[in-house]
Amino acid sequence: MTENFFEAQYDLTKKSKIKKFYESNKILIFSSIFILIILFGSLSFYLENKEGKKILLSENYIQAKFYLENGNKSEALNILRKVIFANDPTYSTLSFFLMLNQNLITDYKEISSLFDHLLENNKFEKELRNLLIYKKALFDSNFIVESELLETIKPLLNTDTLWKPHALLLLGDYFMSKGENIKAIE
Predict the structure, then answer these.
(1) 3-class DSSP string for the chain
(2) Is 88 in contact with 54 (CB distance < 8 Å)?
(3) Which of 183 and 51 is assigned the larger pLDDT?
(4) pTM (2 decimals)?
(5) Residue 78 has what pLDDT?
(6) N or C end of the chain, less CB within 10 A?
(7) Within 10 Å of residue 133's Cβ, how many Cβ atoms?
């Protein structure tokens, strides 16, 4: 009988402590639950919005390709520009290179500025970024002077990257085309 009394008293004390804790922290408990629900809802909304944006960009890219197949280059160019300026690493880059491959833009300065926009406004993996720098230098080598080419290709020469040998070869070919054989050998 004594054991039942102690267990009952223990249960009563335990329940009363929980009830006391609940009563004294009721506002804090409900506030915490409410904040967690809001955070979960906000995160869900953000992720769905981000996924929706990606789907819209992919649809725009496909629509631009459709316009190109039908010969409507001006409409395709407008859509591809919008995709590039959406700053999505995947679709912006795909759109830019589709524009280059289809010769939709022939102005060197505009192409160079689009290269710069891609590099500045998108987060790429290191080697992919270096590839874009190399492609920019390769494209620019036809239009710019030596100092500008060196400035463009400098990030590749100063780091240990897969594209460093290609960059050095590009510089050698550039100097050979200019008739500067000593610089090409160096």
Answers:
(1) CHHHHHHHHHHHHHHHHHHHHHHHCHHHHHHHHHHHHHHHHHHHHHHHHHHHHHHHHHHHHHHHHHHHHCCCHHHHHHHHHHHHCCCCHHHHHHHHHHHHHCCCCCCHHHHHHHHHHHHHHCCCCHHHHHHHHHHHHHHHCCCCCHHHHHHHHHHHHCCCCCCHHHHHHHHHHHHHHCCCHHHHHC
(2) yes
(3) 51
(4) 0.71
(5) 92
(6) N
(7) 21
